[in-house]
Design goal:
single chain; 156 residues; alpha+beta; Alpha-Beta Plaits; 2 domains; elongated; disordered N terminus; YCII-related domain-containing protein
């Protein structure tokens, strides 16, 4: 009986050890992909984050506000299609900084990011203002967008 338990535990330990080895096995480095994404030796690159904040203009006309928000969403889609914006989304809770949403732009240039954010109709109207920050993240970040289209049934 003890031998059966010992053998069972040994097999179980061996299986766990093998499973752990599989998890820690490093994927093969893909130089072509790293180069195409602009990755440094750590697989990272510089981006620019734009934090949208509450602007100085409050629009009471619901139809006008709906039109601006539709333009805001259309502009995000256009910038994404052009490869300029790789992350965009609103914050789900109010915060003391009045951050409303954020963009991660596929550029390390704050000036270029500012040109792109100024194409937003809600920014142009003063509904949103913004702050710009340099950021360092995974060079693979832009690749998630191609899969997002596969998992979303509707666009907002």
């Amino acid at each position: 009986m003890r031998l059966k338990i010992y053998l069972s535990l040994s097999l179980f330990a061996a299986a766990l050890s093998f499973a752990q080895e599989k998890k820690t096995e490093k994927p093969k480095f893909n130089q072509e992909l790293a180069t195409s994404l602009g990755a440094d030796k750590y697989g990272m690159k510089a981006y620019t984050i734009v934090m949208l904040t509450t602007g100085s203009v409050k629009i009471e006309d619901k139809a006008k506000m709906a039109e601006l928000m539709k333009g805001h969403m259309t502009n995000i889609g256009k910038l994404a299609d052009e490869g300029k914006i790789i992350v965009a989304g609103p914050f789900l809770e109010k915060n003391k900084e009045n951050f409303r949403g954020m963009f991660i732009f596929n550029t390390k240039s704050k000036e270029e990011a500012e040109q792109w954010v100024k194409t937003d109709p809600a920014v142009q109207a003063g509904v949103f203002s913004y702050e710009i920050f340099p950021w360092y993240g995974s060079a693979a970040l832009p690749t998630y967008l191609e899969h997002h289209k596969e998992i979303s049934k509707e666009n907002p």
